[in-house]
């Protein structure tokens, strides 16, 4: 993706072009092409989700932050790890479907390990079960990205007593997905897998890019604690 001035209209056009791809390969190809300009472009959108998720985790995590191991799912270029580093966390494992995004994350020096994993298609490594103090996924839980069912894998990868932090958008285009996500999260709570610590509704999540919305769209941050077996 050639460098163009990252005005709001140009960034909007880039993101809308992603919606044209329907296959997994097309999605990955898009993110591979976007990796170089991703950080600058989402800054134009006033994309607050990484900061909001990090704040939620930091508010409730009471263990040894330097020793804690965090799994950053759909880590992209490393925006979430960068925020969590500011809160004293220092051991990050990242996964993403885009090798180009992972390369940018690798260059950040924040991660001890990075793996290419296509969520919803590739299984997470078996040895990751009950392995992480915190599992976080920011941005990928939305329509056209990863299926809702991946949240069960996130829970499996979390240590008992550990935390899972998730975000999603609450705008019109994502309402059906969000309803399915909310239902699955409640179902897993009823099954005794985890308990809800907090859900934070955020009015000004990021600038709207769809053709029928303007201003800012809303979003939500979920924090769950995995129950002891």
Automatic annotation (TrEMBL):
Residues 67-198 form the Methyltransferase domain. It holds the Pfam family Methyltransf_31. It comes from the Eukaryota. InterPro entries: Methyltranfer_dom, SAM-dependent_MTases_sf. PANTHER family: METHYLTRANSFERASE, METHYLTRANSFERASE-LIKE PROTEIN 27. This is Methyltransferase like 27. It comes from Amphiprion percula (Orange clownfish).
